[in-house]
Amino acid sequence: MKINSKYFPIYIFAAIAFGILIGGWLNFPSQNHFFVKSVSKNKLNKLLDFIDNEYVDSVNTDTIMKHAIDNILGQLDPHSIYIPPSEQVEVAESMKGDFVGIGVNFYMYNDSVAIVKPIENSPSEKAGIKAGDRILYADKTKMFGRKLPNDSLFAKLKGKEGSEIVLTIYRKSENRKLKIKVKRGVIPIKSVDAALLLDAATGYLKINRFAETTYDEFMTGLDDLRKQGAKSLVIDLRDNGGGYMDEAISIADEFLKDKELIVFTKNKKGTIEKTFATKTGSFETGKVVVLINENSASASEILAGAIQDNDRGTIVGRRSFGKGLVQREIDFSDGSAVRLTIARYYTPTGRSIQKPYSNGHDKDYSKESESRFKNGELYYKDSIKAPKTLKYKTPKGRIVYGGGGIVPDIFVPLELDHGDDPHTTYLLQSGFMGHFVFEQLDRDRNAFKDLSFEESVAKINATDLYFKAFRKYLLKNEIDIKLDKNKSLVKRYLSAEFARQLFNEDKYYEIVLKDDAMIKRILKKV
């Protein structure tokens, strides 16, 4: 994949913004019983029928309708969006928390389906598929030498639970082909990436989004950590674009006392709905720290706001995204959907954390996060532009601000060893790093075959071999980001990605968090 270096920041921020637009919707039930109340509202359908029947040339009215919907929603707000069928299937699946398939992480490498790693305890792992395998055929469908889109690949590997598929595999490490029969099963999509101890008494939970299964995953992780001796807890919501409101509320309830306000919403009619904590909280006394950054949005901000406004814990990091709008989903028969803003939500002190926008899909709104690099906010606390007129007080008298995200109690700047390239951190967490590490392992996977975790990390960090190779890899893909001034940061993420592909997700976080700036800061405070 080639990406010109001058466009790389645009790709990064476009991906982040889209993730927040998709992930930042809240859990209100779908409504499909809307009625046309006036003749004027039938004009669009009448016009489309007229074009379909009478227009001189052949046209695709579905495409016209999509553009019409996009244009209508474009007059509203940045978070009212149309999601086409192909994207809606993937998004819905992600938010559901599982799917039926064979259970592999893969990507197209040199026109072949390369297995990065089979998912732990998945049908593929149980059937004997290994990292580095290439899928040549799925049943009789050729899977190599073709430019197949990911959705086509997914569709072929998915199916009904219990159904079988025969995969023809090329195993490079053994230089042979083999056929493996795999019985499809339910594959969980984790929303809690890690649950581990930072020290003997401090637990850590990383939540990547709020899906249907997030609360259950969170409680499983919390219970395990408490059994291991955790008395304090760090909840990492960095880069979490949101998801289901109810999941965030349920997690907040675990930390708040009975009848403490978690969040409230207000619609166009002025109707207010308040949600309070219950008596069932399981962690109402232990110390709590919540980590946020500029990409923490929506449901993440509800959880962080509830903790902050009730004086329940400490918010650490950088100002969050600032998304305080509530969406309701309308599903269409073709599999597409519209998410329409139907209310605003407010934190317990009464503040709206929605950042300013003009009507429509405001270009400045989507670029606001990027502007934080330019104005110095991600490096200096004094550069945070919190509206001084929107001050609120917590029960203990602390000042908090509305009008543009959650401002942390403890500010930690963007992590860079030296230098001033803000895109380095995002690059290290992108797919580029994962693809690079896979290709390095693919050249000689046996070199790591009998090494322990500690030995593998030592091998990777012994020289600058992989650092230099990664630098060349970026240049080959036309990404010209200067890495030399951030060598230790890059090497840390390199060894972490090797650990993820060779071992598991917890090992990745074990390495990444060891020298993480926010973690180092809070371990002195927790």
Overview of the molecule:
With 526 residues, the protein is α+β, with helices and mostly antiparallel strands. The protein folds into three domains: 98-188, Pdz3 Domain (Roll), CATH 2.30.42.10; 192-327 and 343-411, 2-enoyl-CoA Hydratase, Chain A, domain 1 (Alpha-Beta Complex); 423-522, no CATH class. It has helices at residues 8-23, 43-54, 61-73, 85-96, 123-127, 150-157, 214-227, 245-253, 299-309, 363-374, 423-428, 431-443, 453-461, 465-476, 487-502, 505-514, 517-522, and strands at residues 81-83, 98-101, 104-109, 112-118, 134-138, 141-142, 164-171, 176-183, 185-188, 192-199, 202-207, 232-236, 261-267, 272-276, 288-292, 314-317, 325-331, 337-346, 391-393, 399-401, 410-411. Strands 3, 4, 5, 6, 7 and 8 form a six-stranded antiparallel beta sheet that branches. Strands 10-11-12-15-16-21 form a six-stranded mixed beta sheet, with helices on both faces. Strands 1, 13, 14, 17 and 18 form a five-stranded antiparallel beta sheet that branches. A hairpin with a 2-residue loop joins strand 5 and strand 6. Mean pLDDT is 87; it is low at 1-14 and 28-33. It comes from Flavobacterium fluvii. GO terms for molecular function: endopeptidase activity; serine-type peptidase activity. One of its GO terms (biological process) is proteolysis.
